[in-house]
Amino acid sequence: MSVKAEGEGAPTKVLRGGSLVTPDGVVRGDLVIEGDKIASVVPGGLAELPEGVQTFDVEGCWVFPGFIDAHTHMQCWTGMDWTADSFETGTRAAVCGGTTTIVDYATQDKGMTLREALDEWHRRADGTCTANYAFHMAIADWNEHTREEVADMRSAGITSFKSYFAYDHLRLDDAQTMELLEAIKPFDGILCVHCENGTLVNELQRRMVQAGITGPEGHALSRPAEAEAEAISRLMYLAELTGARVNVVHCSTRLGLEQVRAARRRGVRVMLETCPQYLLLDDSRYLEKGEDGFAGAKYVMSPPLRKPDDVAALREAVLAGEVDQISTDHCSFNLHGQKDRGRDDFTRIPNGGPGVEHRPALIMTTFEGRLGAMDFLRLLSEGQAKVFGMYPQKGALAAGSDADVCVWDPGQRWTISQANQHQAVDYTTYEGFDVHGRARLVFVNGVLAAQDGDPTGVQPGRYVARRA
After folding, report:
1. Could you tell me the pTM of the whole model?
2. How many CB atoms lie within 10 A of CB 43?
3. pLDDT tens over the chain, length 468 residues
4. Interior angle at CA 170, CA 101 and CA 204, nearest 5
């Protein structure tokens, strides 16, 4: 069934009797969808149904605006290998879990223009996506031409950018980072930064290998909390110097969190993201052996998994409202045929893990009874939409907003497994996790794209041009 065919003369849809999670609070009532837009939010429900409408009984469910994952790497070459998930498989998996929009990192390689990078990401994504998709622009080659192109990116609907303090083929130095911040400040753009001190990491990796520590545990040992905290601190002062907005991505440590807190007290305009892996898993996972003795490689991602104390600190920050968004850093590589190439040298293990499909269930289960529907709205949808210039087009159940909707059944109980996932990767880092709640119905631009955790087979995703 084509999306176009469904859109032509498609009946009005009414989601009846759910708990609607609106910007103003949770109300019981009906949600009316006409075409690709939300037509109305009706507290208490419609007195009577017009003829010809398509109805969905959602009693007992929360009705959220579609969830947004603002940190993904689909169909991406990372310097070692291509990710296992394409835009097609990754967005299909996202929708099965309730996520209706991703913001992926289009990445400029050295010698490439920003326009070339953007065109390449459109080539990979356009016409293949079940979820909507937007792009951040990651900048690895800062020069005068790149500076001039920043305004062109804004015209193309890109208002968020990324830079790295780690990875030699990607990172900018401090002066270049400052200039990039100055370039995006006039239109209130935001810079997302991978905060690890790459020089320290390179040296510590060399020392680990020299000492004979070549297994996955060497990955965590070579990227200590101090390397993250130092880089976050440096970014905070660059943001303070320029007055520009910044977003600390995938914060993983108590030390890093403390740098953000200190900067906020000084008035720095900093947003904070963390990810499910840093709220649920710790560095003991690197010692897992599994059947082939190399299971710890599944958890090689950057930054690495941390100490239980760091996990506790980040959970406390989520409960205190200090975290603005929980996204995934979905960057999937197969254990067999990709990660196992680093069996004798952890520095050759591709960095990254899957997660785009399971984030909503993991977060709602982890914070069940301590956070409510409005908190989950902010952490999984509204926060991303507001930070990255999509609100209220996305992230809101409101008349005129896009009809991206997740009907969440909190009563469902199920177990995460590689066997029942749609991510195109041969494992999940959350194998065996028992979770509470599941996406019963997921609409993308008014089209039913997933039901009870499985795709319906349509690809209604569109490119989302954003504003500052």
Report:
1. 0.97
2. 12
3. 223 334 446 899 999 999 999 999 999 999 999 999 999 999 999 999 989 999 999 999 999 999 999 999 999 998 889 999 999 999 999 999 999 999 999 999 999 999 999 999 999 999 999 999 999 999 999 999 999 999 999 999 999 999 999 999 999 999 999 999 999 999 999 999 999 999 999 999 999 999 999 999 999 999 999 999 999 999 999 999 999 999 999 999 999 999 999 999 999 999 999 999 999 999 999 999 987 899 999 999 999 999 999 999 999 999 999 999 999 999 999 999 999 999 999 999 999 999 999 999 999 999 999 999 999 999 999 999 999 999 999 999 999 999 999 999 999 999 999 999 999 999 999 999 999 999 999 999 999 999 999 999 999 999 999 987
4. 115
Assigned fold of 3-64+393-411+434-455: Urease, subunit C; domain 1 (2.30.40)
Domain parsing of the chain, residue ranges: 3-64+393-411+434-455, 67-387
Cα–Cα distance for residue pair 352/171, rounded to 1 Å: 17
Q: Which residue has the tokens 């009005």?
A: 12
Domain 67-387 has CATH 3.20.20.140: yes
